[in-house]
Recover the amino acids of this structure.
């Protein structure tokens, strides 16, 4: 008999920091910090009440946040992780400079991958994850 896949996250994972920047003819930059918290079921993305964002124009922010959420959810649902997504993600910090949605989607993707890797490392009794400023 096989056991059910683990729920993600198994415990709160706080302060997952990602700095994503790409230098080319269409540069993009996004810095995010998110918390992953256990939820009853599914995927929920929220912004912290005290969130301040360093970016103008502010009307672009909802699109950026939606892109970050999409990147996180996409990564968590990859079959290779073999997890059940039961996650509440809270955006605690965001910064952008001449950015676009793709930068935030990638930052979200990287944040989720980092959080999943941290929990896998702990399950296999490896050293805990350290913030590398990815």
């Amino acid at each position: 008999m096989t056991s059910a896949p683990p729920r993600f996250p198994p415990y709160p994972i706080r302060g997952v920091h990602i700095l994503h920047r790409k230098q080319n003819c269409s540069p993009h930059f996004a810095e995010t910090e998110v918390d992953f918290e256990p939820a009853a079921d599914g995927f929920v993305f929220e912004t912290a009440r005290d969130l301040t964002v360093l970016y103008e124009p502010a009307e672009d922010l909802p699109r950026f946040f939606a892109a970050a959420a999409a990147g996180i959810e996409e990564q968590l649902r990859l079959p290779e992780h073999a997890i059940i997504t039961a996650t509440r993600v809270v955006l605690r910090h965001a910064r952008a400079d001449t950015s676009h949605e793709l930068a935030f989607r990638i930052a979200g993707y990287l944040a989720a991958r980092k959080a999943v890797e941290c929990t896998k490392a702990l399950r296999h009794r490896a050293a805990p994850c350290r913030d590398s400023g990815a």
In short: The two ends are 39 Å apart (CA to CA). The chain is about 30% helix and 35% strand. Confidence is low (pLDDT under 50) at residues 130-134. The longest strand covers residues 84-96.
